[in-house]
Design a protein that fits this description.
This is DNA repair protein RAD51 4-like isoform X1. It is found in: Nucleus. One of its GO terms (biological process) is DNA recombination. The chain is built from 13 helices and 12 strands. The protein has an 8-stranded mixed β-sheet. Strand 8 and strand 9 form a beta hairpin.
Length: 316
């Protein structure tokens, strides 16, 4: 979170006049700027006595935010990072865990891509249940479409319990309390909540969090990408940066889902497009086609495993 005044040395357009204009709209940092409705801000700028300069400043701020990224690491630093004790968290789906050699990796952002009803949400719910039961940690679940089903989670947890145990209901209630679900319906709220989560993790308020799930990330970002404007891409880049920062700093397993839309010749493609695909560490494609052996899942991208490998899985 950088104050706007710290940017003037490198970007003279971010001068005192531009900062006064931003301050009049409650904008004092780059984060404040990103969380503001830029369409409204541009409309106010056009009413100013120096609209051209203010619009240049707005474009400069978008460029600064979009280009923000982690400093380059040398080969030794990258090797050390890869050798850290980063565990894999089981999804509870045997086929997926075998394909990924243990499950979802902590410190990574894993994206589930697939058409509607392909099983993305079920994998999220199953993974959350498995982590809550077996990993002695919390799961933060951001639900963007009212798809979180506590009954389904309770069902998964009941299946993980010993049928002969007399304390099954208490165990289910205990484990469900480890899954914290928040409803999020716009990208601005998501960014704000990610900032809060990062601050909590840094201050160890939520140090027991093991997994963060956003189902679905694309439903929040896709609407602001329309029209080809830079603002939507800046929002997407910032969301991706925050997710990778949270995963890396706190060694969390981050899982996001991305729906599919019609592309050229009616072919389905991921909704977030080409600019997004380089952000997740891992991309997994769910076919949406069911067979006697389950649903097919394919590795599109993975830092350690070969792309193209597939497996069938069943969410019980």
């Amino acid at each position: 979170m950088a104050p706007l005044e710290d940017l003037e040395r490198d970007y003279p357009i971010i001068d005192s006049n531009f900062r006064m204009f931003c301050a009049s709209h409650g904008i004092f940092t780059d984060t404040d700027f990103l969380l503001h409705d830029l369409s409204a801000l541009e409309a106010f700028a056009r009413q100013d006595y120096a609209p051209d300069k203010l619009e240049q400043g707005i474009k400069q701020m978008i460029s600064i935010i979009e280009s923000g990224q982690r400093p380059w690491l040398n080969g030794v630093e990258l090797l050390e990072d890869s050798q850290l004790n980063k565990c894999t968290l089981s999804t509870g789906c045997e086929g997926i865990d075998i394909l990924l050699q243990g499950g979802l990796r902590e410190g990574h952002v894993t994206e589930l891509v697939g058409p509607s009803c392909s099983g993305k949400t079920q994998i999220c719910l199953k993974s959350a249940s498995h982590v809550a039961r077996n990993s002695l940690g919390k799961v933060v679940y951001f639900d963007t479409g009212n798809s979180f089903s506590p009954k389904r989670v309770a069902q998964f947890l009941s299946l993980l319990s010993d049928p002969s145990a007399t304390q099954t209901n208490k165990a289910v209630e205990r484990d469900m309390s480890s899954i914290v679900c928040h409803s999020v319906f716009d990208i601005f709220t998501l960014l704000d909540m990610l900032r809060q989560l990062m601050n909590n993790l840094r201050s160890q308020i939520s140090f027991q969090v093991r997994m963060l799930i956003i189902d679905s990330l694309s439903s929040l970002i896709a609407p602001v990408l329309g029209g080809g404007g830079a603002h939507g891409h800046a929002l997407m880049a910032t969301a991706g940066f925050l997710l990778k920062e949270i995963a890396h700093e706190s060694n969390l397993c981050v899982v996001v889902t991305n729906h599919m839309v019609a592309g050229e010749a009616g072919m389905l493609k991921p909704a977030l497009g080409e600019s997004w695909k380089s952000i997740p560490h891992v991309r997994l494609l769910l076919s949406g086609k069911y067979s006697a052996t389950g649903t097919r899942i394919t590795i599109l991208k993975h830092p350690y495993l070969a792309s193209g490998k597939s497996a069938d899985f069943v969410v019980l």
